[in-house]
Amino acid sequence: MNYLSFKIIPDDADPRFLLGYILQEAHPIIARYGNNKIGTLFPEWNVDEPGRSIAFCGALDVLNRIMKHEYFRVMIDAGVLKYKLLDIDPINHQKVIFLKNQKITSNTPKRQQGKIKRIIKRQIERGEIQSAREYRPRTDQQQTDMPDVFYHLFFLDSKSTEQIMPLCIQMIPVAESEGIVGTQTFDHYGFSTLEQHRAVVPLISPIF
After folding, report:
1. Among candidates 148, 172, 151, which has minimal Cα distance to 104?
2. pLDDT, tens only, 66-84
């Protein structure tokens, strides 16, 4: 199976912020060329943080399109990201589902967006930031009431709505998930969803 993996290099970089941008920039390519067959995974995922790397798996031509995208070329040339394009046998790796679960929090995505907009407005009024693009979400409230269930939030700039869109991602080992029947597909970010898309990815070890 083909993998394109990116690693965040600077120690002082905010990995959650950059991972959100990587998802945002890869999204149009996955949506247009991926045919719902490009999966996204986080090799360093853990309870405390999503890690400093992200990988896409699937058709080599789509992965090459992502790698050659201007955003990634600029970030690689600037020394912010490094990448590896590999062919890895997935048979010896644990199978997991990275699930986009917008219902895991008590608020709907629309209410979350409204709350974020109000926070941004107050921060601008207090002079803490100059614009919405400078907003950085808090990361100290990610746990649900269930201690064995956790998730990580990524905040993306939606080009269609011009709003900040939260993505709530969980990792579910296949042994603990419901059975997958029929054709496996990913959404346009490379994730499984609660209803329409469900597919597994091999959780490859960090390769950098």
Report:
1. 151
2. 999 999 999 999 999 999 9
